[in-house]
Amino acid sequence: MNRKAEKLTALSTAALSVFALNLTAARAANYTPVQGTGTTFDKYLILDKDANVPAAEFTFSIASGTPIAASENGMQVLAGPGTPQITNSAVFAPGDTTLDTVQADDVLEIGADEKYAYKVLNVDFSGVTFDEPGIYRYIVSETAQEGTPFVQDSQQKTLDVYVIDTEGSLSVASYVLHTGTEAPVRNAEGGSNDVDEALAKVENKVTGFINRLSSKDLTLTKLVTGNQASHDKYFKFTLNITGAGKGTELAVDVTAAAEAAPLANSATVYTKDEMGEANAVTKLTCDADGAVSQDFYLKHGQSITIHQLPEGASYTVSEAQEDYVSAALNTVDAEHYAANTGTIQEADLNVGFQNTRNGVIPTGIAMSMMPYALFILIGAAGMASMNNRIIR
After folding, report:
1. How many CB atoms lie within 10 A of CB 364?
2. CA gap 108, 102 in Å, rounded
3. 8 Å CB contact between 211 and 152
4. Which residues of the chain have pLDDT under 70?
5. By three-state DSSP, how is residue 28 classified?
């Protein structure tokens, strides 16, 4: 189904006649109440172009709105009767289709480096009846979530239902979703501008709720220093992530500044196979608790970047013990590096370790050779003394 078809019910542009608002009790008695039908609205999730769609679910509620009396410039608004039902939730999952250009039927803006996914929410009015022509108002709200990486759309949306009289019979002409709280403007003929202009005059019309995935990158770096430190030696890092969301997929960039297949060498205590198996990953998939753990192998000057960690997720980076003095990079350079344990917040983070190995190089005669050297010198002196005695 294309986007136009999905929104056909929600943004119907049926030809509407002038609203009949001069109603009388006698006239009302002749109406047969009309049953509502249904409409839809969208849930949009905006994220960076290189980010994966996270696993997430959003729910909504709908309630009757506040009535507004007719005024010189405004139409009368009636509180929506009954209890319409939002029959589904917006469930996103890794692998969902994304769009990098805004479609004609979507009301949202994205940046050049962003894309979006969407889900359609269904509102069922079949259990609601309307017994008079008028504008009936409902309020739609998104359920707030705590501790999530999403910047949620906390603004309530107004859903107006337009019921009209067509030759003595009631019908639901349109459902209009917008962000306004005022009554529709009255036109010169005493009706709503929306009626005469095919919904063109209602300001702040929207097609749904918009959330953003706020995420950052985490880079793991290895530095080595010292006169007995190997720049060819691979060190083992372990990255633990928690609170990233159920099933969240995180992109991993190993090859930009490290190796997907590290080579074994005499300084490294790990095998080529175990290092290659770890560094060959291109994504990390969080479990049902939003957690994931992964080993990486880095040598001096190398780094690995984990992309699109959700804000609020926690991380811990550790390394296997070696005969090097290990120091967190932020203790060496606090300006450019963050702590190896923390929470993803408003900026990309660079973390890691500096390993140092220095040795004192002995000078002069090695002590282990001294007894033998002295023995040779004493022997030589004895031989010289004996030779002198023979000559005499």
Report:
1. 5
2. 7
3. yes
4. 1-29, 188-201, 364-392
5. helix
Tokens of 284: 């990390």
Q: Find residue 250's DSSP bridge partners.
A: 284
Identify the DSSP state of 301: T
Quickly count: other Cβ atoms within 10 Å of residue 194's Cβ: 25
> Which residue in this structure is represented by tokens 């692998």?
95
Q: What are phi and psi of 157, to 5 degrees?
A: -110, 145
Strands 38-48 and 208-213: parallel
Measure the CA–CA gap between 117 and 382, rounded to whole angstroms: 96
- Going from the C-alpha of 193 to that of each of 100, 176, 198, 340, 383, the distances in angstroms are 34, 13, 8, 60, 126
Model confidence pLDDT, tens digit, residues 83-111: 999 999 999 988 899 999 999 989 999 99
Q: Give the tens place of pLDDT for each residue, 347-359.
A: 999 999 999 999 8
Is the pTM higher than 0.85?
no
What is the structure's pLDDT at 376? Answer: 58
Phi, psi of 380 (to 5 degrees): -65, -40
Structure tokens at 41: 């609205």
Helix (H) or strand (E) holding 167: none
Q: Which two tokens stand for residue 224?
A: 């080595």
The DSSP secondary structure of 351-384, one letter per residue, reads: EEEEEE---PPP-SS-GGGHHHHHHHHHHHHHHH
CA distance 279 to 119: 35
Tokens standing for 169?
A: 């019979």
Calculate ∠ Cα 267-272-275, nearest 5°: 95
Of 37, 153, 36, nearest to 90 by C-alpha is: 153
d(CA 141, CA 57): 15
Pair type for strands 249-253 and 208-213: unpaired
Residue-wise burial string across 283-300, b where 16 or more C-beta atoms lie within 10 A, e elsewhere: ebebeeebbbebbbbbbb
Q: Which domains does the chain have, with CATH numbers?
A: 3-213 (2.60.40.3050), 215-356 (2.60.40.1140)
Question: Smallest Cα–Cα separation from 36: which of 155, 149, 102, 130?
Answer: 130
